[in-house]
Amino acid sequence: MAAPRSSWKGYLRVSLVSCPVRLYPAASSADKISFHNLAPESKSRIQMVPTDPTTGQAVQRDQLLKGYEFEKGRYVILSEEELEKVQVESNRVIDVGQFVDDDKVDPLYFDSPYWLAPDGKMANETFRVIVEAMRRENKSGIGRLVLSSRERAVLLSPRGKGIMIRTLRAAEEVRREDAYFEDIEEGPLDESAVKLAQQIVESKAADFDAKLFEDRYQTALSELIRAKIKGEKIVTPEVAEPAPIVDLMAALKKSLETIKPPAVSKPTRTREAAEEPRERKAKPAPRAKAKSRRAG
Predict the structure, then answer these.
(1) Taking the domains of the chain in order of start, what are their residue ranges?
(2) Domain 91-171 falls in which CATH fold?
(3) How do residues 66-93 score in pLDDT, each as one tens digit?
(4) Which member of 69, 102, 188, 263 has the lowest number of beta carbons within 10 Å of its beta carbon?
(5) Dist. CA 78–CA 75, nearest whole Å
């Protein structure tokens, strides 16, 4: 199996202790269905060609310049060489300046997850000591890291043998809830209704399992594409809107009567067993996620 490709490499530093590290994306959208834009007549894929609006001539991508509009219609041009001169410490070093309780960081600030691992055998001991110290103190580190031409605050938390990094949104990027919740009334509630709702919550309590939450839209989209390739009739299921609640207590009681136990994920088939025969003449449609089955 090929080693995963890192998206950044540099150093992890805590006070005067440092070691080389590599950063890897912890999320992927590679399996998501995507579409291309096609010309209506020829059905050929559209090519997005950069064009000079003044002359109407196409411009080669390697000839494009980067410009910042400081006034309407006026730009300051920055070359690649000039951009490379913009250097801050976090281009190459994740300097952990403080440690916090992980659960004290508002999840509203969480953005993208990454894995951080030592870069080479020589970095192993130092990296492991830092991870173990954080684990024993039950703390996460706060540092800074430049990703995609932007410095981000990051939260470093022990995870397994390594570190999980989550980029944090800046304070000005986050919208607080006050403006959105201002129309929600305050005051006492019917305790009997709350207790019934508590029973519903308790009856549906379960350990979180991401495998249970398949992307049903992607599955339906895959089935639509498969039907189109095979020339089958497209059947659109009706999605009914929830009926308005007239009697809250009656709805709560009925809910308790109809509740089923939370679903439990089952082991999936092996890749070889789950694969289906491929179409030979046409590119196969994306397959829906394979369902589990018992071994015979």
Answers:
(1) 91-171
(2) Ku70; Chain: A; Domain 2 (2.40.290)
(3) 999 989 989 999 888 888 888 788 889 9
(4) 188
(5) 9
pLDDT tens digits along 224-264: 888 888 888 877 778 778 888 878 888 888 888 887 766 66
Q: How far is residue 141's CA from residue 98's CA, in Å, rounded to a whole number?
A: 6
Nearest to 86 by CA among 69, 66, 70: 66
The string of DSSP letters for 50-66 reads -B-TTT--B--GGG--E
DSSP string, the chain: -PPPPPSEEEEEEETTEEEEEEEEES---TTS-----B-TTT-PBP----B-TTT--B--GGG--EEEEEETTEEEEE-HHHHHT---GGGTEEEE-EEE-GGGS-GGGEEEEEEEEESSGGGHHHHHHHHHHHHHHT-EEEEEEEETTEEEEEEEEEETTEEEEEEE--GGGPPPSHHHHTTS--S---HHHHHHHHHHHHHT-----GGG---HHHHHHHHHHHHHHHTPPP-----PPPPPPS-HHHHHHHHHHH--PPP---PPPPHHHH--PPPSSSPPPPPPPPPP----
Q: What is the pTM of this model?
A: 0.70
